Every structure is written in C-alpha cells, then in structure tokens.
Amino acid sequence: xxxxxxxxxxxxxxxxxxxxxxxxxxxxxxxxxxxxxxxxxxxxxxxxxxxxxxxxxxxxxxxxxxxxxxxxxxxxxxxxxxxxxxxxxxxxxxxxxxxxxxxxxxxxxxxxxxxxxxxxxxxxxxxxxxxxxxxxxxxx
Length: 140
Prior knowledge:
This protein has 140 residues and is α+β, with helices and mostly antiparallel strands.
C-alpha cells in the first residue's frame, strides 16, 4: 500500500531529481523552462506511449542561490538542475525535457516525499529502511 501511494501519479507525492542535460542552455532558455514547468504543459504522444498533461512542477537551476543546500549536495557535477514533480508518470522527467528540445543524460532521484536519499549508498545498491524512515514516508 505504501509503495502504491508513493508512486501513483494521482497521489501527488513530491519526487525530486537531479537532472543533467545534453545541451547547455542560455539564461533566457532557463527562464523559459522554469516558467513552462511551473505552469504545467501537454506532452505529445511518442511512439507507443500516450500523450499526457504534466502538472506544475518546481525547476531550480544548480547555480541559483535560492536552491536548497541539501539538493546541491545530493546533485553531482553532471547535474544542471533540480526538478520536483508531483506525479511520476512513465519517463515523465525525460519526456518533459524532450518536449523542450533537450535530452536528459543524467537522472538521479534525490528525495521522495519528505525522505532524502542517503548519499552514502553506492550506485546500484540499496539499504533497508529504518522504522523512522518508513514513518517519514508514511507522513509524506
């Protein structure tokens, strides 16, 4: 039940990602992306996938002074921005940036709900959640 609640797009649990983009973008393009993402937008159908409406999201660029320090720490040098979505549809982050004419080349989930990723976990590894961490997710 907890997994379904956390992952189902209709529950609107925030999922935050560090994102690296293939093409560097200008300050003007950054403002355009940020505005578009904050309002939400339609993503056209791709191959066998249906199109869908992306709900408003929060996009922050790594160099911005107002970005949360924890997000900066969890991001890597491959990251250009931090994106928080409130749905989690199939390949949503990649499809959002593709709709803007860019390609995601690095993607790392850094938090889900109120739980931040433990940065000491190696890539491809996992850890058993503590009761406290499970409670944090339940309260998200």
